[in-house]
UniProtKB/TrEMBL annotation:
Species the sequence originates in: Rhynchospora pubera
UniProt cross-references to InterPro entries, sorted A to Z: A-D-PHexomutase_a/b/a-I, A-D-PHexomutase_a/b/a-I/II/III, A-D-PHexomutase_a/b/a-II, A-D-PHexomutase_a/b/a-III, A-D-PHexomutase_C_sf, Alpha-D-phosphohexomutase_SF, Phosphoglucosamine_mutase
Subunit structure: Monomer.
Main EC class the enzyme belongs to: isomerase
The protein's required cofactors: Mg(2+)
Name of the protein this chain belongs to: phosphoglucomutase (alpha-D-glucose-1,6-bisphosphate-dependent)
Length: 609
């Protein structure tokens, strides 16, 4: 069925099946679609669910086709072929949204974003199965990236065209977006699902999406489902369909300041921990480094209402070019920046966030970094005071010293699992479901989630948890400062040498014999596993869920396959450089017969150490 349009409104009556074949012939004009029907949630005939009870007998009565080039979004001719599944990054979607980096063509365009948002809507419909004429509501927020607002508007077009109510939160944090699916009693804020537009700490030209319902972040299978739906929607759009105009979308989108609700909850949590004292942090000097991401709110909206002095805080203004340093608590330059700020301002504590505030780290008054194993140890100490004997779930690259600290000093149980914050969180949830109590799931990257906070990986809440402890101790003794926190991890045995070497797999090498890099990587790990068994100086970890972990020479190494890339990261920790050399040499001898591996970095380490 075809409809020719030329600057006028055309009405046409179609059935749901016919609507799928509706094609707009625009003759160079860009047209937008306004949908009026007895059935909600269907825009463009793209989100029909054949097995949905509420839609089985539905009939679309009228479609108004409004042509207005000045108000419309993307021209049909701008569509290019896209491999949607390549946008998947585990439980996130990531792509290139801005031109400017050689060799990185843009693949996260407005039409792609519209299709992904509409696909999330279809997925959400199947998940929620709303009754009657109920329209589902989705919130959209973004970090400070320069492509954020363009993608926010594109996502809004996709959702509104599919019949959803949309609330734009603007600049927000990832944890706040999940939190908005849990908020009740706020008619303007409660939502059925949420989308966070972010690419974490990646460069300025990248962007992506994270999705949430009240049950938490979506998993890998959900993301694959959404991308497959998006591919189908995109094909229909590129075959002649179009999305609503910006003007029509703006009339259907609400805007709200949800961050005020979210930060108010954080402030209340600290006050409760201190016995409902209004300003439990009064007199403490705490500096914040937001790295020009979305975390600048923490100084004025959380710390200052609690009485803290925040002078000397830096890079709080959102700037998607990240001109000062990468917003990443694992980055050396970033940690040096917050450490310098603490020492220069003689502050009691420093706090640093990543771009979308789902990761964090701290620095004490002496300049000692509290990140990676130290942050895990401190969080474990706090949680085990509240829940004695509980299991602490971490990723695979945590140290042997951390295990000893958690189990022998704190009386807890350390469950070392896989890399990937969603893997760690899901494992903690699984353990609880089979009767093994766990209250903390945390990665060395700074992702940390607590059972009490709905298993949300929230960098701001992690820092609030530290502040809760500090505030409660100061309520008993006002002279106490942040040193009380670092005192809690006294006895944590830390390696003298800790490094990661990435062994890249050349996917074009003949040794792959047409197979995938993943198959090749698994073959390397199998060979390493067999080789280690014959070395009396080395011992495999008795319980291991990822790669091959080996102890020896007073330290350990772990070789694993990257979650997403053709890389085998090799982590080594040892008391001395000499011990690290022995571990590196053992790993090298086991993998040197695989010619598709780039061993140059490992060879350099072994030769120089």
């Amino acid at each position: 069925m075809a409809a020719a349009v030329s600057g006028r409104i055309i009405q046409t009556t179609v059935s749901p099946r016919q609507s799928k074949n509706l094609r707009l012939i625009t003759s160079g004009t860009i047209c937008a679609v306004k949908l009026h029907s007895t059935v909600p949630h269907q825009g463009l005939g793209l989100t029909w669910t054949e097995n949905s009870a509420m839609q089985k007998s539905a009939t679309v009565k009228t479609k108004n086709l409004l042509c207005n080039a000045s108000q419309s979004g993307t021209a049909v001719s701008s569509f290019e072929k896209v491999d949607f599944l390549k946008l998947q990054n585990g439980s996130d979607i990531r792509g290139v949204a801005i031109e400017g980096v050689e060799g990185e063509p843009v693949n996260l365009t407005e039409p792609v974003t519209e299709a992904i948002a509409a696909a999330f809507g279809g997925w959400l419909l199947n998940k929620k199965k709303p009754e009657g004429s109920k329209r589902l509501r989705v919130s959209i927020g973004h970090d400070s990236r320069i492509s954020a607002k363009i993608l926010q508007n594109a996502a809004s077009r996709g959702l509104v065209s599919a019949g959803f109510e949309v609330i734009q939160y603007g600049l927000a944090s990832t944890p706040a977006m999940f939190n908005s699916t849990l908020t009740q009693g706020e008619a303007n804020h409660w939502v059925d699902g949420s989308i966070m537009i972010t690419a974490s700490h990646l460069p300025y030209n990248r962007n992506g999406f994270k999705f949430f319902t009240c049950e938490g972040g979506l998993g890998k299978a959900d993301i694959k489902d959404i991308l497959q739906r998006a591919s189908s929607i995109y094909e229909k759009l590129s075959d002649g369909g179009v999305i609503m105009s910006n003007k029509d979308v703006e009339a259907s989108v609400k805007k709200a300041d949800y961050m005020s609700i979210y930060t108010s909850d954080l402030v209340s949590a600290v006050r409760r921990a201190a016995g409902n004292i209004e300003k439990p942090l009064k007199g403490l000097h705490i500096v914040v480094d937001a790295g020009n991401g979305a975390g600048g709110f923490f100084a004025a909206k959380v710390l200052e209402p609690l009485g803290a002095i925040t002078s000397g805080s830096q890079f709080l203004e959102p700037d998607g070019l990240f001109p000062n340093h990468i917003p990443n608590p694992e980055d050396k330059t970033a940690m040096q920046a917050i450490t310098k700020a603490v020492l220069d301002n003689k502050a009691d504590l420093g706090i640093i966030f990543d771009t979308d505030v789902d990761r964090s780290a701290a620095v004490d008054s002496t300049g000692r970094e509290i990140n990676r194993n130290r942050l895990i140890a401190l969080m474990a100490a706090i949680v085990l005071e509240e829940h004695p004997g509980t299991t602490i779930v971490t990723d695979s690259v945590t140290s042997d010293g951390l295990t000893t600290f958690i189990e022998n000093r704190l009386g807890g149980k350390h469950h070392r699992f896989k890399r990937g914050y969603k893997n760690v969180i899901d494992e903690a949830i699984r353990l609880n479901s089979i009767g093994e109590e766990s209250h903390l799931a945390i990665e060395t990257s700074g992702h940390g989630a607590l059972k009490e906070n709905h298993w949300l990986d929230d960098g701001a809440y992690l820092m609030v948890k530290l502040l809760n402890k500090l505030a409660s101790m100061r309520a008993k003794d006002p002279s106490i400062d942040s040193k009380c926190l670092t005192d809690m991890i006294d006895g944590l045995d830390e390696a003298g040498i800790a490094l990661e070497i990435r062994l890249k797999i050349d996917q074009n090498h003949a040794d792959l014999k047409g197979g995938s890099f993943r198959d090749y990587g698994e073959a390397v790990l199998k060979h390493l596993n067999n080789t280690i068994e014959s070395d009396q100086n080395l011992k495999k970890a008795p319980k291991n869920f990822e790669g091959v972990r080996v102890s020896g020479y007073g330290g350990w190494f772990l070789l694993r396959l990257s979650l997403h890339d053709p890389v085998l990261p090799l982590n080594i920790e040892a008391p001395t450089k000499e011990d690290a050399h022995k571990l590196g040499l053992a790993a090298l001898n086991a993998v040197r017969e695989f010619p598709a591996l780039d061993l140059s970095a490992l060879l350099n380490f072994v030769q120089l150490s």
